[in-house]
């Protein structure tokens, strides 16, 4: 009976992480209202309403693949206007995360900030198996995950963590993107 209660409690804890998102976040008088039901494990609709923007800024709705764990606001491109990030996790138990970024353009409208797929980076993908955590810190995005052995026959944790620091920069097409600027590994405590 105790084992049964423990299993139910564990399952409830995992699903409780992905509760409905209905939050308003601002820097000063401008920011965003974010709503997402997070009901489906595979895709969910997100509604974003700009707050404190000029009247030309309109609500947007789009779908994300997975569930949103958290949303945060910070000035990521040093233009004194609020930018929004959503931490989206793929279905399954590997905790593979992605970031949806939105940048305010002079509080008149907003534009996407692209986030690179870690599997496209030959250096950073070594030992990556998911279990991401994200955090905004003083205008930068931090990503942390445990490092695993690269032997495909028997993947095991190495006891190390990798942390990647991303900055928002202009890309070749004058859009914005998160670019990894620093990474390091440290022993998991």
What are the salient characteristics of this protein?
single chain; 189 residues; mainly beta; 8-stranded mixed sheet; 4-stranded antiparallel sheet; 1 helix; globular
Explain how this protein is built.
The chain has 189 residues and is mainly beta. The protein has one domain (2-187). It is built from one helix and twelve strands; from the N terminus they run H-E-E-E-E-E-E-E-E-E-E-E-E. It has one helix at residues 2-17, and strands at residues 21-27, 30-36, 43-51, 60-65, 67-74, 83-89, 97-105, 109-114, 133-137, 140-148, 157-170, 176-187. The chain has an eight-stranded mixed beta sheet with strand order 5-6-7-8-12-11-10-9, with no helix packed on it. Strands 1-2-3-4 form a four-stranded antiparallel beta sheet, with no helix packed on it. A hairpin with a 3-residue loop joins strand 7 and strand 8 (109-114). It is globular and about 55 Å long. The two termini are 33 Å apart. Mean pLDDT is 88; it is low at 1-16.
